[in-house]
Amino acid sequence: MAKDNKVFDELKIFKTIRMLDNYSVIILDLWGVVHNGQKPYPGVVESMQILRSSGKKIILLSNSPRRSDAVIEQIRKIGISNHLYDKVITSGELIFNYLNYSSKNSGTKSYYKISPLGNDYLTDDLIDNETVNIKNADYILIIGPQNDETDMVDDYNAILRSGIDLSLKLVCANPDLSVMRGEKYVLCAGSIAQKYKEMGGEVISLGKPNQAAYLECLSMFENYDLSDFVAIGDSPLTDIKGANQSGIDSIFILNGMHRKDVYLNNKLNYELIKNLFQKNNIDYPTAIMTSLVS
Question: Which of 26, 206, 234, 293 has a CA that sits 20 to 30 A from residue 241's CA?
């Protein structure tokens, strides 16, 4: 079971998925572990097939702002078929359920939306109604920046200031600050939500590292002990922090979004790994692993 205040020198090094034999349920991050936004990482599909054939349960836990069915279709198109996992749980699905539950119990509300242009893969079937005038909104719903490759957080300062002046809560469908699409970092909703919180606003977020995301995973397999679960991810701030807080083991993937932060001259640098967790005030993971390989 995961422990607080882990000693860095006690970190295990998992070289292959064979070292996951002691776990029954594998909680996998998607973006940064399974795929890079464009295609699966080399060897990952084969590794998932091996884990499944050995009887492991696999939950794909993602901070994607899309609903689960949309992500299932998205990953199917890049070669991750549904026989490779048991369930997909997304931050977007958790937020969708939260908003509809709230509306059913306290009445329909209006939201001001910040999202990419086109289909947002979240607000279809939402009970609440969108308003284009923030003065008529009951809350702000942020799904993502309009253009995640070019937009900056400060581009949204005017909207955020209006939200503060109106005392609106901000509901964030994706807590990630950024992700890598291919070889490029792109902005996520979490960075804009973080700015809103720094300005004094209230933010509601149910994706990683919020325990709601992990409780959803644990509820699927209630007959298992916490020690049967392990969460694998490439973000200390979301994947590792969330797992540690939920009392389950965690494995930090080195070749994900932080690979530029932990390698020096193309060689893994353990002091850089240590510093990455210390500067973010995150407890160390149970183990580290280069990537999900067999």
Answer: 293
Confidence of residue 3 (pLDDT cuts 50, 70, 90): very low
DSSP 101-167: HHHHHH---EEEEE--SS--SSSTT-SSEE-S-GGG-SEEEE---S-TTT--GGGGHHHHHHHHHTT
Measured distance CA(173)–CA(207) in Å, rounded: 7
Mean pLDDT, residues 85-111 taken together: 98
Residue 235 token pair = 């973000």
- DSSP-derived pairing of the beta strands 184-187 and 178-181: antiparallel
d(CA 140, CA 118): 18
Nearest CA-CA partner of 221 in 56, 84, 66: 56
pLDDT digits (tens, 9 = 90+) for 123-138: 999 999 999 999 999 9
- Identify the helix (H) or strand (E) that includes residue 218: helix 211-220
Distances (CA, A) of 259 to 163, 180, 192, 254: 36, 11, 24, 6
pLDDT tens by residue, 194-252: 999 999 999 999 999 999 999 999 999 999 999 999 999 999 999 999 999 999 999 99
Domains and CATH numbers, the chain: 8-63+208-289 (3.40.50.1000), 94-205 (3.40.50.1000)
| Nearest Cα to Cα of residue 230 among 178, 290, 275, 289 | 289
DSSP code at position 4: S
Please tell me the predicted confidence (pLDDT) of residue 176. 93
The whole-angstrom separation of Cα 106 and Cα 188 is 30
Tell me which residue of 132, 199, 192 sits closest to 164, measured CA to CA: 199
Q: How many CA atoms lie within 13 A of 191 on its CB side?
A: 17
Q: Which region holds residue 266: left if phi is over 0, alpha if psi is between -120 and 50, else beta?
A: left
